[in-house]
Design goal:
The protein is mainly α. It has one domain. Helix content is 63%, strand content 2%. It has 8 helices and 2 strands. Strands 1-2 form a two-stranded antiparallel ribbon. Helix 6 runs antiparallel to helix 7 (175-187). The radius of gyration is 37 Å and the shape is rod-shaped. 27% of the residues are buried.
Length: 217
Amino acid sequence: MAEIKIEKKKPIWPWILGLLVVLGIILFLFYATNNNDDYMDDTNTNQPVMTDTITDNSNATYNNAPSSNTTTEYKPSSTYLVNVQKSLNDSMKLGTDSIYTAKAFYNLANASASKAVEMNLYSSPALSSLESDLNQFKSAQMGQEDFSKIDLKTLSSEITAVISEIQNKNAPNLDKEVSNLKTLSNELNSSTDWTKQQKNIQDYLNTSYEILTTINY
């Protein structure tokens, strides 16, 4: 009689165990990847967003380049021009109130020098001359009464020279206006009382303001 051999089935549990291990590895890699993506998203969320917005520089200062002979610091020229405009709003004081008038010229001088620095006119002899006077005013820590001692004739000549250089470089279309400004500056007289030059003083400040404002935009 022939012997019947019964083949034993191989156990399937090692295959099941192996499949579970593989699934475990896949799940581990999946969740690890997701967690890393979430971390990157959180990191990017906390980063500042760079936009093309215009920054307010009203409190900024401009330093002269190393090639300049001075270390004068300025606010933006637009800031000084606002102060000049305030002086022009009460034009009846110009020429009659010596301190008020001198402050208007002082602000105009700063506006002119600041604009020249913004336009990179560092090697300008006219700017150096104007800055020399401005630095003397600042180092002296001028009080209210000191403003009335400013020589408007000299200061206006220096301001006009700086404005002329700014105009030559950046606004050749304003040649006629600058020519008129030079005439107004020449007509100012240090030996004549300011009260007798009120209209000329007003015209000079107005014309200077209009030129710088036009160049400023």
